[in-house]
Amino acid sequence: MASFVSFAPSATLQILKFDDVDDYRRAVRKFQLEFTPLSRRISAEQAILHLPGFDLSLIQAFPRLVNTQLAPDGTAVCFSMDERLPLRINGVDMDRAIVALGHGGDRFTALEEAAVRTAAIVFTPEIHDRGWPETRREFSMLTTTTSALQRLRLLVLEVMKFASASGDAAVMPATAAGIKESLLAASDQVFGRYGPPLADGSLHSARLFGVYRKVEEYLGENLGNPIYSNELSRQVGVPVRTLQDVVRLYHGMSLHRYLRLKRLWLVRQRLRMGHVSVKACALAFGFWHLSDFSRSYRLHFEETPSETLARAH
To answer: Which of 111, 113, 87 minimizes the C-alpha distance to 99?
Structure first.
């Protein structure tokens, strides 16, 4: 299998290659790992992105048996980057759209009969307020849709490409928070968080409307800053899952899309002041994927960010 680590190292992205088992073992982050190689010679590659709130790893390992335990302070989302390769986790063949989910201290076993490619996102601290399944000391193997898993795979590659090409930009607080928000939103879709809106006349409608008012009040008082789901949850005092239900009920869209639209408007407001570059403004409000930002901006405002900035001068 050809190398999949085609990224260049940067200030935030570490690229490691191994032909020694012990060197590989020492480089593993966020997991206590024990394994038995199934081949004499090993060849392993790993790309590790470490940013506030999460670690993202792409791994091409070697045929092996694995026993591992997640560190006590995180939630891990693990999945294969390939289709139909011989990988089995906790007795389940990963030959379909399956994702492994574990919370702090959870364990899993794996049989990797070939040099499979896998990805692991470890969010810290643990996540228990987005409606994701809970676990009981072992990773859960969860079936999702092929399209949701493929979107998550492509997003992981885009994040790695950005971290490789952008250097120090990835460590900017707003940029790092924007990347984390993208990964959380893609994981929400994988775990089927976005269900139907709550019915009108629900016994909880008065409470949900009160939450909605708090959300709007907080967003209105903080128009100069990018707002993300975790911070909004903390300020309003309800789980992210409740925020998702409320926003879908009252705005007919996902929480991620709603906050993204809010941030687009904040960028436009800043650009119209004419004091910053498009790139600096986008990064300041968490839009780390610049081509995606430009496409969304033009779709929403029917002009490019550069055109908005040019009209301000």
So the answer is: 87
195: exposed, middle or buried (C-beta count within 10 Å: 0-12, 13-18, 19+)? exposed
Here the tokens at position 15 are 């690229």
- Residue 200: pLDDT above 60? no
Tokens 């992210």 belong to residue: 240
d(CA 11, CA 171): 8
**Does 20 share its domain with 117?**
yes
- Give 19's contacts (C-beta < 8 A, 6+ positions apart): 41, 42, 43, 44
Q: Is residue 163 part of a domain?
A: no
Of 116, 145, 174, which residue sits at a domain end? 145
Tokens of 117: 């490619």
Does residue 107 lie within any of the structural domains? yes
Structure tokens at 174: 């707003």
Token representation of residue 14: 């570490």
Q: Are residues 140 and 206 in the same domain?
A: no
Q: Is the pTM of this model over 0.85?
A: no
From 279, 285, 283, 277, select the one nearest 310 (Cα to Cα): 277
- Digit-coded pLDDT (tens) for 139-152: 988 889 889 999 99
Tabulate helix, strand, coil % of the chain (nearest 5): 45, 20, 35
- Look up tokens 């909880």; give the residue: 204
Q: Are strands 31-37 and 140-143 parallel, antiparallel or unpaired?
A: unpaired
Sequence-separated (6 or more) residues with CB below 8 Å from residue 56: 48, 49, 119, 120, 121, 122, 156, 159, 160, 183
Task: Answer whether residue 177 is part of any domain.
Answer: no
Q: Report the C-alpha gap between 173 and 175 in whole angstroms.
A: 5
- The pLDDT of residue 2 is 40
CA dist., res. 268 & res. 240, Å (int): 27
Overall domain count for the chain: 2
The token pair that represents 218 in the structure block: 């907080």
